[in-house]
Structures are given as structure tokens and as C-alpha cells.
Amino acid sequence: MKKNIAIVMGGYSSEVNISLKSGNVVFNHLNSAKYNAFRVHILKEKWVALDDNANEYPINKNDFSFTLRNKKIIFNCVFNAIHGNPGENGELLAYFNLINLKHTSAPFYQMALTFNKRDTLSVVRAYGIKTAISIYLNKGDEINTNKIIDKVGLPCFIKPNNAGSSYGISKAYNKEEILKGIETAYKEDSEILIESFLDGKEVSVGVIQYKEKIRVLPITEIVSENDFFDYEAKYEGKSKEITPARISSEEKSRVEEVAKKVYTILNMTGFSRSEYIFVDGEPHFLEMNTVPGMTEESILPQQAAEAGITLSELFENAIESAFND
Questions:
Q1: Distance (Å, whole) CA 182 – CA 135
Q2: What pLDDT digit, counting tens, does each position of 92-133 carry?
Q3: Among 65, 125, 176, 193, which has the minimal tally of Cβ within 10 Å of its Cβ?
Q4: Is the peptide bond before 244 cis (omega within 30 degrees of 0)?
Q5: In this predicted structure, what is the pLDDT of residue 148?
């Protein structure tokens, strides 16, 4: 009997439209001979399942079911395609845990941890993983630009602590730009991170659970036309994403080793894509994305294709791994 799969997409953050695009790609590539797939929009104003004609049916939040033509549809598994809140920060997954519904992401605590940039950096640093120097601020904290510059130097990056897709990130070259960057970051989050600039080659490394083993996918080199890998570079063609990356065999081996270690340290399962910058041949960890983009143009699907894994195989593996957990 075919399993009922909910592909959740949307969310409550600035990434809602990217998530809707990712979710539709999953829907279009999921094996219809094996699964009954339903798109489920998780939005601030409504939770609804869609039929093939895009008609909406309210989700019963007691058991995450819905009624279609007088028949109650109960899901066997959820494919999580929500970037940001509430899919990537663990909130929705904690709810699925409570109602005993399997899903394709890591457990809710791991998702919450990795969504918080400061806490993730604190954990990996304790295991000797190299990172940028950083300062953490809560909204309302005193802002002393001299102290910030003394610690992280110039230029520096200002980031929302809990946000993705490079929303709210800026690069500052002086005190005025630091203040402006802080203001921009606070529009996305009440917690922000200010990091030192790492001058080196940037790579993106996908690490996934594939056929019950941790697998490092072919590495992607990021070459941004802009000053850094911002939203425009990620989603509007202002960057080159070169897979496999143009790095030495020693650099490749080193970053694969570190990426696998980070995945294990953080007790991850399912998808992940992390960014690293090489400084003097050593990969420095920036952050981890646990619900990476899933469109045909997205980095992780590009890496899977280079590894000979189709989108259909990638998505089916995620669902079957969830059933086996």
C-alpha cells in the first residue's frame, strides 16, 4: 500500500517563498508509484493541504490529518521543506514528535541547536573546529563599535543569529556601516552575531544520511560577484557555484573530514549543508543549514547530481531513512 507523505512548505519567516518553491520541486519528483504525496502549506494565517487542483483543505492540528472527499487522510511521514521558522528551528518537529509522526529532518533539539548560529559555534569550537572570531548581541545591549572593532577587526560581518538565506546579513568596513548592519540584522532577529572577516576560498559542503551511512557529497566552490554570498548572489544569479570545487586534494580531504566530524558532533541526521572558508589551508566552519534549498538549481541537489543521485532518489532516501529511524 502506498504511504501518505505530507510535504510541508511555507513557514513564518522571510524564506516563505523559497520554501514554497523547494516544496513544489519535492512534490514533482517524489515517486508517485510508491507514495501519495500532498503539499501542505504551513503559513501564519492557515495550515492547509492542497489537492492536485490547488484546492485547500484545513489541517486538523490534533493529529495533522485532513479530510478529502469525505475521507480522512492520515500521514505516514512528513517531508520537511520549510526553511526557517517553524520547520528549521525545531518548533514544528517538536509537534510532530508529540503526535508520533515521522519526518525527514533531525530531531527537534538538533534542529533548534543548529538554527542558532551562536550555540552551534559554541559546540563545535569545544571540539577544536576552527571558526571566525565573533561577538553576540541581544537587542537592547549597549553597542560599542570600538570594542567590536578591537575584537573582530574590519571588515566584519553582521548576521541575525536565527535566520537563513542570507536575510539581514551585511558586511561592514567602518563604524557607521557596523551600526547600519546591526539595525538591518535586528529587523530579522532580536539576537545578532558579529564575526571577523575570513579571507579565503569559500566552499559549501553537503553531508547527508544516505542508505543508512553518513555521506559527504561533492564539494561546491562559491564565487560571488557581490562583496559576499548574499541573497542576490544565492538566488538571483550573482554567483558562480562550481561543483566539484577547484581545491587541492589535501584541502578536499581536510574539509570532508571536518564536515563529517561537525555532522557527527551535532548528532545530525537527514540533510545538511554547511559553509566553510579556507584560511591557510584550514577550513573554518561558518554555519549549518539543515533544510537546504531543494530546487533544481540549489546547491545540495547540484552536489547530489554530481554524485550520481537523482532528485527522486535523494527525496525517497530521506523518507525511507525517516521510516527506519
A1: 12
A2: 999 999 999 999 999 999 999 999 999 999 999 999 999 999
A3: 176
A4: yes
A5: 97
Structure confidence by residue, pLDDT tens digits, 312-324 = 999 999 999 999 9
Domains delineated in the chain:
3-104 (3.40.50.20), 113-130+200-324 (3.30.470.20), 134-196 (3.30.1490.20)
DSSP letter, residue 99: T
Q: With the CA atoms of 314, 316, 320 and 325 taken in that order, what torsion angle do they form, in degrees rounded to the nearest 10?
A: 40
Distances (CA, A) of 203 to 50, 154, 161, 212, 219: 37, 22, 21, 25, 7
C-alpha cell at 284: 573554518
Q: Which one, of 154, 156, 123, 124, lies nearest residue 137 by Cα?
A: 156
C-alpha cell at 127: 571540539
Mean model confidence pLDDT for the chain: 93
Residues 306 and 15: their CA atoms lie apart, in Å, by 26
pLDDT tens column, 145-165: 999 999 999 999 999 998 654
